[in-house]
Amino acid sequence: MHHLCAELAAGSGPTLTTDRPVADARWERCAYTLGKQAYREAMADHATPNLPSSDYDATIAFYARLGFQPGYRDDGWLILVRGELVLEFFRWPDVDPATSSFSCCLRLDDVDAFYAVCRAAGLPETTRGWPRIHPPRLEDSGMRIGALIDPDGTLLRLVQNPDSDDQG
Known about the structure:
four-stranded mixed sheet
């Protein structure tokens, strides 16, 4: 249900008024629209990566090719949404892709389908430069993992979710 809150944060929810002061209006809109209990259930126990963006317009354009849509944007924060995937970005104009150590994991039900989207978007399968993509492969851990390096040098590991039958 994260996408609902992202849509609400994008402005399709109610407008907050000054008689409802909040610390973070981006997410509080969900609470006022869904009710506090539904908001807590929708957003309970999850994490979203906070990644650097040297240029929000370029970040939006890159991730749009992969199916992400803006969920929120202001001068200091950007949220992109693709189904249940949520990526959050902070402005860092001086991020150096060659030395960036930012990373996160995208846990995917169909890593091959997402990889195909990346390839169809023109991402090169190479070992140097950015952006680039590495195909999913079976790791020693028994997990299938690929990799995406975005234009700012952030590593996004593409991890195949285990089949429900394998989860015990």
